[in-house]
């Protein structure tokens, strides 16, 4: 059996919109489950997302949920999601999609180490880093 590491994002009440946005950027299959479907139909969080999982054609898995009432959630800038590889067209497309409606914090451009690199924050406040490696000489 293999193991894998997946980003799991927490939102106050926009997990559905964020995950639909990410599906628009990356493509793939999105599964959503609400607290109501898991037995909390009468609670204040019935329509909030308990668990979302996006499986993309590129092999990425992105997970998320809404924070239920009574739980603390703090937005931090200590974590970024990094995308890297050598498919420049694909990665440039992801960067453009993620930054649309958000903010480019570092333009995606050639860096001193030879790769293209850029950073952005998407419309949901999630920080992303994109690195396009150059072919070995």
Automatic annotation (TrEMBL):
Segments forming domain Glyoxalase/fosfomycin resistance/dioxygenase: 5-130
Pfam families: Glyoxalase
Stated name of the protein: Glyoxalase/bleomycin resistance protein/dioxygenase
Lineage of source species: Bacteria, Bacillati, Actinomycetota, Actinomycetes, Geodermatophilales
UniProt cross-references to Gene3D superfamilies, sorted A to Z: 2,3-Dihydroxybiphenyl 1,2-Dioxygenase, domain 1
CDD domains in alphabetical order: PhnB_like
Alphabetical list of InterPro entries matching this protein: Glyas_Bleomycin-R_OHBP_Dase (IPR029068), Glyas_Fos-R_dOase_dom (IPR004360), PhnB-like (IPR028973)
């Amino acid at each position: 059996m293999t193991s894998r590491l997946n980003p799991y994002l927490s939102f106050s009440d926009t997990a559905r919109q964020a995950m639909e946005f990410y599906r628009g950027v990356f493509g793939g299959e999105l599964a959503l489950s609400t607290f109501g479907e898991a037995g909390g139909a009468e609670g204040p969080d019935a329509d909030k997302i308990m668990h979302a999982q996006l499986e993309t054609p590129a092999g990425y898995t992105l997970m998320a949920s809404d924070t239920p009432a009574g739980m603390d959630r703090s937005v931090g800038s200590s974590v970024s999601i990094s995308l890297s590889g050598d498919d420049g067209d694909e990665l440039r497309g992801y960067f453009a999609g993620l930054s649309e409606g958000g903010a480019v914090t570092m333009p995606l451009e050639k860096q001193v180490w030879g790769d293209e690199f850029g950073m952005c924050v998407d419309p949901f406040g999630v920080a992303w880093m994109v690195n396009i490696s150059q072919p070995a000489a």
